[in-house]
Specification:
The complex is a heterodimer of chains A (313) and B (331). Chain A is 72% helix and 0% strand. With 313 residues, chain A is mainly alpha-helical. Chain A has a domain of 178 residues: MetI-like fold (Orthogonal Bundle), CATH 1.10.3720.10. Chain B has one domain: MetI-like (MetI-like fold), CATH 1.10.3720.10. Helix content of chain B is 70%, strand content 0%. Chain B is built from 13 helices and no strands. In chain B, helix 6 runs antiparallel to helix 11. The longest helix of chain B is centred in the last third of the chain and has 37 residues. Chain B is flat. The N and C termini of chain B lie close together (6 Å). The relative contact order of chain B is 0.13. The chains are: A mainly alpha (313), B mainly alpha (331). Chains A and B meet through helix 1, helix 5, helix 6, helix 10 and helix 11 of A and helix 7, helix 8, helix 11, helix 12 and helix 13 of B.
Chain lengths: 313, 331
């Protein structure tokens, strides 16, 4: 376990290092307008001087070295256009709590709704829940999220009388964004839990239990669900990735003051440093999610051995 | 099953016929030993592809959708050539030179006009064409790259360890981030969108192909081929890849809706195609801006309905094909 953890941790660090390098090199290819508030008004000398003072005219290896040192000190530079001369981390720090809270709430909702849906689908094949669930899963996985997010915002705000835009003080404005954010994960959990439970139901020991006279309820609860739930843990990281991607949409749709909306905002205003900081933070979140999923899986089911497979996921 | 019944029925019929032609004497005498008949072996005219197609065509929903998708695909290309169609990018003015803005659907403009007076009907089909083009291009590139890397990874043993480590690192990068980053840096156009989407998409395909090839590369018939001096290329193309065609096609069918969805996502966050090129993402984004006014919601609905239809169809067709290509479901 320790060996695996160490190896996995090292792998994540290497990934993070590579992403940082890629992000850095790509950002040097960006048009330099992204470094100025009033690019059109400046003449060539001023631009050169400003670029020099930001260290952008140094040779690339030197820039790269400075960039690593900066990041290791937790310094992601200052915002250039969005809120000039405010450190990026400070802006992101203001916005992060809402995003984190909303993401966690949506994952909780997905677990509460998705798992029972999966169980209901596995229990009665070809009954109402199976049909409903299959239609739901096909719709959610096939139709781009943008379309149903929009329709939810359009109609549910009227029907339920909840505000169309988000405000931190009004708890009812939390409902729609959080539930929308949970939808892909609900479909995902239900789909896989059903599949694993059906697999488990077809095994011989279940037949034996039935022959012995164990009640259906007990078979479901003590055997099928328990065994089917273990592999579900590996979907936790993917659901974190879904949440991250969804939050970028949802937050700007409902104007939630979070990181996802911020990313859209700074992309549209071409604030290079902010984009760089946010992309790095989002990739770190994704990588930590994958790492946690692997470690959790290992901790939950001692039968699984990753090291034998040479660390392949 | 139906096929098997049919076969049994024909055999029965032919036996009955031969019995009818015999006289009573023939019927009640011993049959002699026929050496030729003893050499006869069972013959099955089973063909993998015919069975796949047969099973697929039993799925009525998937077949209907496949036909409809085919019709839509052809229609998007011939629509501009049909008589009485408007140009997708021309701005229409009325008699006084005013732009025909936000006209609700009518006889002249079947889907109405948008906020600057362009014909929504032709824009929707032109947009569908762009989106499908992106979808097909991404699916094709992903398949090519995935197969190439997967075959190298699985067949060349020395590369296995290196490729696995590279895969583990690359697979950890969130795809959304790669998409955003590359679209942010590249100038938005159809080709750059395709490049950004293909950068990470081939990883899954490559891993899948690799796993399959590792399983079948040392089967006896491949060993025999190698011993007989068959060139590696021939082993790969003749012995290994035909095994994987069905799954590759399924993955491609599922990559198309994903790519179309990604295009909508990128357009939404402001990194999509320029407004001068109609695409479903652009149209939905335009419709979103106007959706608070109830009379103008048609501008969101028309592209959204076409988009949902296309993506759901590809999803269902892909899954139906995957079921059909599994020999367990064959006769």
């Amino acid at each position: 376990m320790l060996k695996y953890t160490a190896k996995r941790l090292l792998q994540s660090l290497v990934t993070l290092f590579i992403i940082a390098t890629i992000v850095f090199s790509l950002m040097r290819l960006m048009p330099i307008e992204g470094y100025f508030q009033n690019f059109d008004k400046l003449d060539q000398n001023q631009i050169q001087a400003a670029l020099k003072s930001m260290g952008l005219l140094d040779p690339l290896p030197v820039q790269l070295k400075n960039f690593y040192i900066q990041i290791l000190h937790g310094d992601f530079g200052k915002s250039l256009i969005f809120r000039p001369n405010v450190p990026c981390l400070e802006i992101i720090g203001d916005k992060a709590p809402v995003s984190i809270l909303m993401g966690l709430a949506s994952i909780a909702i997905a677990l509460v709704l998705g798992l029972p849906l999966g169980i209901a689908m596995a229990r009665g094949k070809s009954k109402f829940w199976d049909k409903f669930g299959t239609a739901f899963i096909v719709f959610i996985t096939a139709v781009p999220a943008a379309v149903y997010y929009l329709l939810i915002q359009l109609y549910c705000t009227d029907w339920f009388g909840v505000p169309i835009l988000f405000s931190t003080d009004d708890p009812s404005s939390w409902i729609l964004p959080t539930v929308s954010l949970a939808l892909p994960n609900i479909a995902y959990y239900a789909m896989w839990l059903r599949r694993y439970m059906v697999d488990e139901l077809n095994k011989d020991y279940i037949k034996l239990a039935r022959a012995k006279g164990v009640s259906s309820k007990n078979i479901m609860k003590n055997h099928v669900f328990r065994n089917a739930f273990v592999p579900m843990v590996q979907y936790l990281p993917t659901s974190i990735l879904y949440t991250v991607a969804g939050s970028i949409y949802i937050e700007s749709l409902y104007s939630v003051p979070g990181m996802g909306g911020l990313l859209v905002n700074v992309i549209q205003r071409q604030d290079n440093n902010m984009v760089q900081a946010l992309v790095l933070i989002y990739s770190a979140v994704g990588i930590v999610g994958l790492l946690l999923g692997d470690l959790l899986m290992r901790a939950m089911d001692p039968r699984i051995s990753f090291t034998k497979e040479g660390g392949a996921r | 099953m139906a096929l098997r019944h049919k076969k049994t029925a024909t055999v029965e019929q032919s036996i009955n016929q031969s019995f009818e032609n015999m006289t009573d004497d023939e019927l009640f005498s011993f049959a002699g030993f026929d050496e030729k008949a003893a050499e006869k072996t069972g013959y099955s005219n089973y063909s993998y592809w015919r069975s796949t197609v047969q099973v697929f065509f039993k799925n009525k929903t998937a077949v209907t959708l496949l036909i409809l998708i085919g019709v839509i695909l052809i229609f998007t290309f011939i629509q501009p050539l049909l008589p009485g169609q408007h140009s997708a990018t021309q701005i229409f003015n009325d008699a006084n030179g005013m732009q025909l803005r936000n006209k609700t659907p009518n006889a002249e403009f079947w889907f109405g006009t948008n906020s600057i007076g362009q014909d929504l009907w032709s824009r929707v089909w032109s947009g569908t064409r762009t989106s499908l083009l992106i979808g097909f291009a991404v699916a094709l590139t992903e398949a090519l790259l995935g197969i190439l890397m997967g075959v190298l990874w699985g067949y060349v043993r020395r590369l296995d360890r290196l490729f696995t480590e590279i895969y583990n690192v690359l697979d950890n990068i969130p795809q959304t981030i790669v998409l955003i980053l590359f679209s942010y840096i590249l100038r938005p156009s159809v080709s750059t969108l395709v490049i950004a989407m293909c950068l990470t998409g081939w990883l899954d395909m490559a891993r899948f192909i690799r796993n399959q090839i590792v399983i079948i590369r040392d089967r006896d018939y491949n060993l025999a081929s190698r011993c007989l001096g068959t060139p590696t290329r021939r082993v790969i193309f003749r012995n290994l890849l035909p095994y994987l065609v069905s799954v590759i096609m399924m993955r491609m069918a599922l990559a198309i809706p994903a790519a179309i969805g990604n295009e909508v996502f990128l357009t939404y966050i402001g990194l999509g195609l320029p407004v001068s090129i109609p695409s479903l993402g652009n149209l939905i984004n335009d419709g979103r801006v106007l959706m608070t006014s109830e009379a103008l919601r048609y501008q969101l609905f028309f592209p959204a309905i076409v988009l949902s239809f296309v993506t759901i169809s590809f999803y269902i067709i892909g899954n139906a094909f995957a079921d059909a290509s599994d020999p367990k479901n064959h006769v």
